[in-house]
Amino acid sequence: MNLIQSHAQKRDGFVKEFALKLGVDVFTPISHTIFSPEEIIKKNGGKPPLTYQSFIKLIGLPPLPLGNGSPSIPPVGIDNSNDLPIPTLTDLGFGDVSQEECNPFIGGETEALKRMDASIQDQKWVAAFEKPKGDPTAFLKPATTVLSPYLKFGCLSSRLFYQRLQEVYRKVKKHTEPPVSLEGQLLWREFFYTVAYGTPKFDQMEGNPICKQIPWNDDDSLLSAWRDGQTGYPWIDAVMVQLRKWGWMHHLARHAVACFLTRGDLFVHWEKGRDVFDRLLIDSDWAINNSNWMWLSCSAFFSQYHRIYSPISFGKKYDPDGKYVRYFLPVLKDMPKEYIYEPWTAPIDVQRKAKCIIGKDYPEPLVSHLGASKNCKEKIAAAYALNKQIKGERNQVQLQGVKKNSSDSRNTDDVIKQPPKKLRQKKLTSY
Ligand SMILES: Cc1cc2nc3c(=O)[nH]c(=O)nc-3n(C[C@H](O)[C@H](O)[C@H](O)COP(=O)(O)OP(=O)(O)OC[C@H]3O[C@@H](n4cnc5c(N)ncnc54)[C@H](O)[C@@H]3O)c2cc1C
């Protein structure tokens, strides 16, 4: 088995080796995920399963949370005699981190358990949970659990959450199933961890074997307009402001802005959007963030690039009055609801009355959605065709290599790096 050494794996290996040299016993339980990614990859013949369904077939019964019948961690002697005060953020060199508005989520295990209990006690809600049906604009009472920051920081055990869900499922007559159920959400997390663990260069496009090679733009002005909530599309900008202020948005809101930045409108590289999320999300998680960015940009896992979210009608469908937009973009708070998702179409006297002149108080749309999305589809179609051709070429070379048992020194990677002349010409003209 050829498991890939990510930064975290290398770091852990180093710490383990260092501790062992000093005669310190090292015990490394799997606790951040329900299943062991390494075990699943082993069961799958050394390769990570690349679809959710094939992953589900492999997992078997989940281990119980510690202290619930499963073997416990050997006690570690903690010496508190030299207690030092907890350093402040300023001590750690972060300076002033005050925000315009504090995110509404309190940290810590006590809060995590309280939040989980609050979700679980509504058994009807848990039993009926269907992720794609949630309302991404429901911000005062979010449509999902908002447990992701707690899972990310280890304030909440994914195994405990999983077992508590099973208790509810046993009590109710009928409940939804993976992939859309709450259990299914936790399994998405497990699936993405497993793929991330076993895929080389998972956090980049180049050299990542599951990632489609797409000639994304490298346009920092488009990126900064998106990042700063200045695209001129209120639904997109409101989500980006929620990200900056709260560090958390509903999954479908993340879909909307990730699609818009990449394959939907701006054609900016998913790695750039990933970095912005990584910096601003309070639940930012290496495996989950990279996976979802590849998904949304149609670079891996999902390939229906012709299905593009509209930056106008997506938000409108859930919130026709625009309450979400008005909350996160107060500059538009007095815009009549007919124009709230397309304020540039409001007559000038309406804009004056709403004290919001488009182009002055709030930007004009950065791109025309219809034209931009058509362009994006064409570029992705060309990139997909090229990826397919190169893959075909590679298979052919491999086949010939086997047939001839050849001494040809050109390896398959060279084919990807240096496509034949015909393909290179196509690449230049089609992008
Ligand atoms: C572009 C993009 C980037 C994302 N980046 C992150 C990230 O950095 N960290 C992160 O935790 N989630 C990320 N997600 C996944 C998802 O949006 C969040 O996990 C979810 O919105 C968190 O809210 P919740 O806890 O209320 O979720 P719930 O719906 O209540 O789900 C419960 C738990 O299941 C897990 N989960 C739910 N959806 C997913 C998913 N699609 N993939 C993997 N695990 C999931 C999370 O741990 C979540 O807390 C991203 C999604 C997109 C589209």
UniProtKB/TrEMBL annotation:
Residues 405-416 have a biased composition (Basic and acidic residues). One of its GO terms (molecular function) is FAD binding. Binds 1 FAD per subunit. GO terms for biological process: circadian regulation of gene expression; entrainment of circadian clock by photoperiod. Keywords: FAD, Flavoprotein. Residues 184-381 form the Cryptochrome/DNA photolyase FAD-binding domain. This is Cryptochrome/DNA photolyase FAD-binding domain-containing protein. Gene3D superfamilies: 1.25.40.80, DNA Cyclobutane Dipyrimidine Photolyase, subunit A, domain 3.
